[in-house]
Amino acid sequence: MSLMTMIIKMSEGLGKTCAIFFLTVLFSLPLGMIVALLRMSKVKVVSAITRFVITVLRGTPLMLQLLAVTYGPYYLFGTTVARNKLIPVVIAFSINYAAYFAEIYRGGIESIPIGQYEAAEVLGYTKFQTFMRIILPQVVKRIMPSVTNEVVTLVKDTSMAFTVSYQEMFTIGKQIANSQTSFMPFLVAGVFYYLFNVIVDYVMGRAEKRLDYYK
Amino acid sequence: MAEDKINMTDGGGQPSILGIRSLQKSFGSLSVLKDISLSVDRGNVVSIIGPSGSGKSTLLRCASFLEFAEGGDILYDGQYALRDGVYASKAELNRFRTRFGLVFQNFQLFPHYSVMKNISEAPILHGEDKEEVQERAFELIKKMGLDGKEYAYPYQLSGGQQQRVAIARALAMKPEILFFDEPTSALDPELTGEVLKVIRQLADEKMTMVVVTHEMPFAKAVSNRVIFMAGGVIVEQGDPLEVFDNPKEERTKQFLRVFERA
C-alpha cells in the first residue's frame, strides 16, 4: 500500500476523530461546570458524593471507562451493544473530561477574591447576576491556559477509541499497520494529531488574546 | 461610655438614617462587638477610629449585612432590619440594601469592566433607564476628577483613581448613607490625599457618611462626631475636638498618644 492510499484511508477516519473531539468539548465544558458547582455545594452529602465521583473518574484509566460505558450495559443488563459506537465513546469522554474541567473550574472560582462577591452583593446584584456577570468572566480568563492543556490532551486521547473498535483515524491506522506490518500508519497518525493540535493551539491562543483587554 | 442613652431621632424628631442598638457579634467564641449602640443623623459624618481588631470594620460589615449579628437592633430610617437579634426577610433586607453604599479598603472594582460599566451596571440592573444612569455616571466621573477615564479599565488606574471610581460606583446607587471601610489604608501615602479630598467634598454636600479610618487629622476636620472603639466596645464618642483634644477615657488617650508620637 502506497503512503498516499494510507493517508487517504486514514483521513476517512478523521471525520470521526473530529466528531469525538468536538462533541466531547461541547458536552464536557458545561457538564464540568455543573460538576464543579455540585462539588462546591454547601450540602455536605452532595459535595462528598461529587468529590468521590471525580476521584473515580480521574483515578481510573480512560480506556477502562470507555470499555465500561460501551460494554457495561451489555454485561449488566443484557442490552445489545450500541451499533453506533460514537454515542458511548462521546459519553465516556464527556464524563471523564467533565471531571477534569470541574476541578479546573473549581480552582478558578475559588481564586476570585471574596470581596468581589461582597461588592456585588452590596450593589444589589442577585446571586445569579453576581456569578454570571462578575465571577464567571474572570474565571474564564484565569482558567484558559489549563483548559487549553486539557483540550490538547483530548485531541490525542481520541485515539483511545480504538479500544472499542470505533473506526476513527487511529483505529484505521492501527488496522493498516497490522495488515501491512508497517510502522508508517503510526507516523501518519502522529503528524495528523500534531497538525490538529497546531490548529487547537492557534484557536485557543486567539481566545486567550481576546481576554487580554484587562488584567 | 460617653453617651449612655442613645437617641434614635435627630433634633427635629426625624428618625436617624441609621440606628444601632446593643449590637452583638462574635466569631466562634471570640466576641468582636459587645453591646454597640450608635446613631447617625442625616447629613452627618461619623468617623470610627480605634486600634486594629477593635471591631470597627465588623461594625460596618454588620451595618451593610456582610456579617450577621447575633443580638441587638439595626434600624434604617426607623425601620428594623434587625430586631433583637432577628433579621428582616431577605426581600426586606434587599430593600434596605438600596439605602446604603459601601466603599472597601481594597476598592473591589470589577476588573473586567470599564470605569463606566463599573459605575453604571448596578443601577441599570435595578431597572433604571440606561441613558439616565450613564449620564449620571459621566457626572460622577467628572466630579471624582476622572474625566477621560470613562472607558479605562481598573488596572490602568492608580490606587487613588480606583478608589475614586469605587466611590462613584457607590454614589451611582443614590444611597442615603455611605460607609467607608478604611478607604485609604491600601493606598500609597501620596495617593491618600486625593481620596480624602473627595470624601471631604461629599461631606460639604451634606452626604451622610460613616468612615472607619486611621487618618486622624482627616477625622478631626471632617466629622461631626467621632467614635473611638477598642476591644469591641465604644469607649468614647462625641465632638471630634473633644475626643481628640480632650479625651476623657484613659484608653482613648493611650491610643491617641501613639499617633502623636508617629
Helical run tally of chain A? 8
Topology order of chain B in helix (H) and strand (E) letters: EEEHEEEHEHHHEHEHEEHH
The mean pLDDT of chain A is 94
Q: What is the global morphology of chain A?
A: flat
Poorly predicted spans of chain A: none
By DSSP, the count of extended strands of chain A is: 0
Q: Which term fits the overall shape of chain B?
A: globular
Radius of gyration of chain B: 18 Å
- Major sheet details of chain B: 6 strands, mixed
| Estimated radius of gyration of chain A | 20 Å
Q: Residue share in helices of chain A?
A: over 70%
* Distance between the amino and carboxyl termini of chain B: 27 Å
Broad structural category of chain A: mainly alpha
**What percent of residues of chain A are in strands?**
under 5%
Portion in helices of chain B:
25-40%
Largest interface, C-beta within 8 A: A-B, 20 and 26 residues
Which structural class best describes the helix and strand composition of chain B?
Answer: alpha/beta
Could you walk me through the main structural features you see in this protein, from its secondary elements to its overall organization?
The complex is a heterodimer of chains A (215) and B (262). With 215 residues, chain A is mostly helical. Chain A has helices at 3-39, 44-59, 62-77, 86-110, 114-122, 127-157, 169-180, 184-210. In chain A, helix 1 crosses helix 7 (169-180). With 262 residues, chain B is an alpha/beta fold. Chain B contains 9 helices and 11 strands. In chain B, helix 5 (159-171) packs parallel to helix 6 (189-204). The longest helix of chain B is centred in the last third of the chain and has 16 residues, at 189-204. The two termini of chain B are 27 Å apart. Classes of the chains: A mainly alpha (215), B alpha/beta (262). At the A-B interface, helix 5 and helix 6 of A face strand 7 and helix 3 of B.
Characteristics of this structure?
heterodimer, A: 215 residues, mainly alpha, B: 262 residues, alpha/beta, five-stranded antiparallel beta sheet, 25% strand, disordered N terminus
